[in-house]
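Subgroup meeting minutes
Present: P.N., E.W., G.H.
Scribe: E.W.

1. P.N. recapped why we're keeping a running log of single-chain structure predictions: easier to compare across weeks, and new members can see raw inputs and outputs side by side.
2. G.H. added today's entry (97 aa).
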Amino acid sequence: MTFLTAFPGTPLYARLKNEGRILRDRAWELCTLFDINFQPKNMSLAELQAGFLGLVKQLYSAEETHTRRDNFKRMLKTSPHFGQHAKRDDKQLAVQN
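Output recorded in log:
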Protein backbone atom coordinates (compact mmCIF):
# COMPACT_ATOMS: atom_id res chain seq x y z
CA MET A 1 0.00 0.00 0.00
CA THR A 2 1.39 3.37 -1.00
CA PHE A 3 0.12 6.81 -1.85
CA LEU A 4 -0.23 7.87 -5.44
CA THR A 5 2.89 9.92 -6.11
CA ALA A 6 3.20 12.60 -8.77
CA PHE A 7 6.80 12.29 -9.95
CA PRO A 8 8.32 15.37 -11.60
CA GLY A 9 8.45 14.98 -15.36
CA THR A 10 5.36 12.76 -15.59
CA PRO A 11 1.99 13.65 -17.14
CA LEU A 12 0.36 13.33 -13.70
CA TYR A 13 2.78 15.84 -12.23
CA ALA A 14 2.20 18.26 -15.12
CA ARG A 15 -1.59 18.00 -14.74
CA LEU A 16 -1.54 18.50 -10.98
CA LYS A 17 0.93 21.38 -11.30
CA ASN A 18 -1.32 23.00 -13.90
CA GLU A 19 -4.23 22.62 -11.46
CA GLY A 20 -2.14 24.21 -8.68
CA ARG A 21 -2.23 21.04 -6.58
CA ILE A 22 1.50 20.22 -6.28
CA LEU A 23 2.50 20.99 -2.70
CA ARG A 24 6.14 21.87 -3.42
CA ASP A 25 7.56 22.06 -6.94
CA ARG A 26 10.21 19.43 -7.69
CA ALA A 27 10.34 18.24 -4.06
CA TRP A 28 11.92 14.86 -4.76
CA GLU A 29 12.12 14.18 -1.03
CA LEU A 30 8.30 13.83 -1.10
CA CYS A 31 8.47 11.16 -3.83
CA THR A 32 8.77 8.23 -1.43
CA LEU A 33 5.36 6.65 -2.13
CA PHE A 34 4.62 7.17 1.59
CA ASP A 35 4.57 10.97 1.54
CA ILE A 36 1.88 13.03 -0.14
CA ASN A 37 3.16 15.54 -2.67
CA PHE A 38 -0.12 16.94 -4.01
CA GLN A 39 -3.38 18.33 -2.66
CA PRO A 40 -6.10 15.71 -3.07
CA LYS A 41 -9.36 16.75 -4.68
CA ASN A 42 -12.44 16.92 -2.44
CA MET A 43 -10.60 16.09 0.80
CA SER A 44 -7.90 17.44 3.05
CA LEU A 45 -4.43 15.96 3.45
CA ALA A 46 -5.44 14.88 6.96
CA GLU A 47 -8.49 13.05 5.60
CA LEU A 48 -6.36 11.24 3.00
CA GLN A 49 -3.80 10.22 5.63
CA ALA A 50 -6.50 9.06 8.06
CA GLY A 51 -8.23 7.03 5.35
CA PHE A 52 -4.94 5.47 4.29
CA LEU A 53 -4.06 4.48 7.86
CA GLY A 54 -7.53 3.05 8.41
CA LEU A 55 -7.27 0.99 5.23
CA VAL A 56 -3.80 -0.29 6.17
CA LYS A 57 -5.03 -1.32 9.62
CA GLN A 58 -7.94 -3.19 8.06
CA LEU A 59 -5.97 -4.89 5.26
CA TYR A 60 -3.20 -6.06 7.58
CA SER A 61 -5.40 -7.00 10.52
CA ALA A 62 -5.10 -10.53 11.86
CA GLU A 63 -8.60 -11.39 10.59
CA GLU A 64 -7.99 -10.15 7.02
CA THR A 65 -4.55 -11.77 6.87
CA HIS A 66 -6.03 -15.08 8.04
CA THR A 67 -8.78 -14.87 5.39
CA ARG A 68 -6.28 -14.15 2.60
CA ARG A 69 -4.03 -17.00 3.78
CA ASP A 70 -6.95 -19.46 3.85
CA ASN A 71 -8.09 -18.38 0.38
CA PHE A 72 -4.57 -18.77 -0.97
CA LYS A 73 -4.22 -22.26 0.51
CA ARG A 74 -7.59 -23.30 -0.90
CA MET A 75 -6.67 -22.02 -4.38
CA LEU A 76 -3.28 -23.72 -4.19
CA LYS A 77 -4.83 -27.07 -3.27
CA THR A 78 -7.30 -26.97 -6.15
CA SER A 79 -5.01 -25.47 -8.80
CA PRO A 80 -4.15 -27.78 -11.68
CA HIS A 81 -0.66 -26.27 -11.76
CA PHE A 82 0.47 -27.03 -8.20
CA GLY A 83 0.77 -29.95 -5.84
CA GLN A 84 -0.56 -33.39 -6.71
CA HIS A 85 -2.44 -32.11 -9.75
CA ALA A 86 0.74 -30.72 -11.30
CA LYS A 87 2.68 -33.95 -10.68
CA ARG A 88 -0.07 -35.92 -12.36
CA ASP A 89 -0.04 -33.53 -15.35
CA ASP A 90 3.77 -33.80 -15.60
CA LYS A 91 3.54 -37.60 -15.72
CA GLN A 92 0.87 -37.43 -18.41
CA LEU A 93 3.03 -35.08 -20.48
CA ALA A 94 6.03 -37.41 -20.12
CA VAL A 95 3.95 -40.40 -21.28
CA GLN A 96 2.61 -38.46 -24.27
CA ASN A 97 6.10 -37.44 -25.40
